Amino acid sequence: MELIADFLLVAGALGAGFYCYILARRLNRFNDLETGMGGAVAVLSMQVDDLAKTLDVAQATAETSGATLENLTARAESVAKRLELMMASMHDLPSEPPPEPELKTTNGPIFRRHDSAGASQ
Q1: Is position 56 within any domain?
Q2: What does the alpha-carbon distance between residue 26 and residue 41 come to, in Å, rounded to a whole number?
Q3: Within a domain: 72
Q4: What radius of gyration, in Å, describes the C-alpha atoms of the chain?
Q5: What gap in Å lies between CA 29 and CA 18, rounded to an integer?
Q6: What distance in Å separates the CA atoms of residue 29 and residue 22, rounded to the nearest whole number?
Q7: What is the number of structural domains in the chain?
């Protein structure tokens, strides 16, 4: 009976050793940086870092764009108020333009020559 128990104990130890050996090989392949999950985890980690940096830059750009947009909106509102005031003042103008003055025609010379002393001819 002791001999059977010893055989079962040795068989169990050999089975556990073989199981550990297989698990160690699988774990090494799993953690391999070129073909296994370790490489995938490393790549994903680098991508997360890159995305975090890109997100920081995007947030900073969005903040500056928001400030610029607020400034432009305020300027547009002030220009709109001035345009409304101009349009309101245009209602006070007459609807027809005033007649143009007639030019007088003269038969005499248009230009007159002055001498150096300042007397006219």
Answers
A1: yes
A2: 16
A3: yes
A4: 48
A5: 17
A6: 11
A7: 2
Calpha distance 20→6 (Å, rounded): 21
What is the rounded CA–CA span in Å between residue 58 and residue 52? Answer: 10
User: Which residues form the domain of 5?
Assistant: 1-31
Q: Are residues 18 and 56 in the same domain?
A: no
pTM over the 0.90 mark: no
Model pLDDT for residues 36-82, shown as the tens digit of each residue: 777 778 888 999 999 999 999 999 999 999 999 999 999 999 999 99
For residue 44, is it within any domain?
yes
Residue 104 lies in a domain: no
26 and 49 in a single domain? The answer is no
Query: Is the separation of the CB atoms in 38 and 31 below 8 Å?
Result: yes
∠ CA 99-104-107, rounded to 5°: 160
